[in-house]
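Bug #77: duplicate submission created two jobs. Keeping one. Sequence:
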Amino acid sequence: MKVELSSGRLLLCRHGQTGFNADRRFQGQLDEPLSDEGRRQSRLLAQRLAAEPIDAAYSSDLCRASETARLILAERALPLRLDPRLREVAFGRWEGLTFSEIKDRYPEDVAARERELIHFAMPGGGESLAQLAERVAGFLLETLPEHEGQTVLIVSHGGTVNAIISSLLDIPLQSWWRLRNHNGNLTTFEFTPLGTRLTSFNDTCHLEDHAQLRWP
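Kept job's structure:
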């Protein structure tokens, strides 16, 4: 089952940078705040969206996403709805580590994930990509039909943004890793009677020299 809307727009954003992003550490569901650079990126994103009408706003309940969303909304009289289904994928015992550290400490995890990218869940409370996709699809199916004909803002995380894009465009999960999105970027969709249209991807024009891709 997939989302089917005949009109409306989606403004999809990744949160601003954190210290963990700058160090290329896996954050997952650790509640890392924005860095000064992340707040700067978020304010630039807010300026980019200042002229956009926004009818509803949703964010992950993790503070790096919700703070970004609040900076975007600024003085708008619009409630921000927090939803844990928009959290980043849980990386279990990988969280807080760089990939180099993970390879040293847990080489068996890396090998297992390479063998089964879609269904492998990191030990220690991690999720698989399939589980991420399932909760994201649940959010989209429940939420977007409530906003037919409206413009919806969603602020989330790199992996979750990819899962949303993959869900809306029927991109196979095994290909989602080919999508890379910067902190503070904007991706837009239009919903039409002919289907969902991707109208921009990873737009960072508003960031100028502050467009930095930080991905483990």
